[in-house]
Amino acid sequence: MARWEPDARDRLVRAALDLFGEQGYDATTVAQIAERAGLTKSTFFRHFPDKRELLVAGQDTLATLLTEGAAGAPDSATPMEAVLAALEAVTAAFTPDRRELGPKLQAAIAANAELQERDTLKQVGLAAVLTEALHRRGIPDPAASLAAEIGMLAFKRAYARWVTAGETAELATLAREELHAVQSATSTLT
Amino acid sequence: MARWEPDARDRLVRAALDLFGEQGYDATTVAQIAERAGLTKSTFFRHFPDKRELLVAGQDTLATLLTEGAAGAPDSATPMEAVLAALEAVTAAFTPDRRELGPKLQAAIAANAELQERDTLKQVGLAAVLTEALHRRGIPDPAASLAAEIGMLAFKRAYARWVTAGETAELATLAREELHAVQSATSTLT
């Protein structure tokens, strides 16, 4: 009988990151991850379809937050203001424990081509979601695609800073700064 | 003994696209592709590591052309002028027969999630190559990443037009037009 494990998901992610760091991603099995987390394999599979998805879980949540954030911007908002609203909304998913796990997660992804591919596909998927949210605000292409790419680039840079040792600023603050930096860079291109 | 098959690569791609259209990507085997092309399986594997790579072959060539194109722009070139030089260089790989195969290729990719993933990873890989080429010109981030994303977005749009029935313009012409369109869109974002 399945026990109620309120923090199972979090425990599985932490156990997996520890094992990936110790013995590598390829050598780590789902059974080992479950055992390290003090859970069963069936509990693992209630939360994740496989080992690869474990590190990029939550994509649906991020997509929803981006979409709602962009939709919630005032009607008068410019495309970049709508992108900022989307990024601010998505930061809600980035909790303090996610910040703490960030360096281990980055190391695991950097060490494995399969995880890099999955991470890349996640980012491209989120850019497409943001583009679609901007379309629904009546923003045509290529402006919508461009605004979404600028937003994703800024968020990637903000996230990298956020998980850097010694950085104490909030992710939303960093996202605003980086969005401004990337926008400013547009004027240096021609 | 291996025969000299000067057009083997092209024949394999054409045979594969026909079979994907007729019976789907998943149902098509390497043996069937080779047979349809009038070649052996071992000839297939001399040209492609697997079925998936067949439709995104030539990524290394495109990367080299992008890099050389960006490097070959005058020292005085702006970042966007260097991107344009890179795009113009890469159009050399897009021969008339590639244009003719374009719609079949697009249909095959649209119909299969695995090919979509591979195609996405190819595009992201080429954006990274272009970013790196811009770094070597002394362009810092985020300007280099942004310029590369603008370039890739423009090229994607240009390619889509190029393979559209009735479009007769050269790819280089379309790339210039789309690069201009995407750049112009930057001024509509704020």
Q: How would you sum up this structure, described in words?
A:
The structure is a homodimer of 190-residue chains. Chain A is mainly alpha-helical. Helices cover 71% and strands 0% of the residues of chain A. The radius of gyration of chain A is 18 Å and the shape is elongated. The model of chain A has no long low-confidence stretch (mean pLDDT 92). The interface between A and B is medium-sized, with 26 and 27 residues.
Brief write-up:
The first copy, chain A, is an all-alpha fold. Helices cover 71% and strands 0% of the residues of chain A.
List the SSEs and their pairings.
Two copies of one chain form a homodimer.
Chain A: H1 8-23, H2 30-36, H3 41-47, H4 51-54, H5 59-72, H6 79-90, H7 96-110, H8 113-136, H9 143-162, H10 171-185
Helix pairs in contact in A: 1-2, 1-7, 5-6, 5-8, 6-9, 8-9, 9-10
